[in-house]
Design brief:
- The chain has one domain.
- Helices cover 23% and strands 36% of the residues.
- A hairpin with a 7-residue loop joins β1 and β2.
- The longest helix is centred in the middle third of the chain and has 14 residues.
- It has two helices and six strands; from the N terminus they run ββααββββ.
- The protein is globular, with a radius of gyration of 14 Å.
- A six-stranded mixed β-sheet has the order 5-4-3-1-2-6, with no helix packed on it.
- The protein starts with a strand and ends with a strand.
- With 115 residues, it is an alpha+beta fold.
Length: 115
């Protein structure tokens, strides 16, 4: 992954198993304001991009509704400006933002950019 920068971004951490390390940070860049339509569009993208996080017999409509609620929740999903993901000198990846986001030491596949 090359260095990526987003003016505005949502971030949510989703588990796909019960073992340590079985989670990914999903970054959802966006422009403009977060409207209901924008949340729904981002939820559609996430459901399409990460179907493995749901049970094998998941209903896409129900999953979409749950993801919309998750993305709207300021407790479960962060919102930041000037977000950057880049490779550091150790060969791992660092996520940082204008505000309080800072994660380091992750493999490239830990950050999933949903566009």
């Amino acid at each position: 992954m090359s260095k990526r920068h987003f003016d505005k971004c949502l971030k949510t951490d989703l588990r796909y198993g019960t073992q340590p390390g079985q989670s990914r940070i999903y970054l959802l860049p966006y422009t403009g304001y977060l409207t209901d339509v924008k949340f729904e569009t981002l939820a559609d993208l996430l459901v399409q991009r990460a179907p493995h996080i749901f049970t094998p017999d998941f209903d896409p409509k129900s999953a979409r509704e749950a993801v919309v609620l998750r993305l709207k929740s300021e407790w479960l999903t962060g919102r930041e400006k000037n977000v950057t993901v880049e490779k550091d000198e150790l060969g791992t990846y660092t996520l940082k933002s204008e505000g309080c986001w800072f994660c380091f030491g992750y493999k490239a596949d830990h950050f999933v950019i949903v566009e």
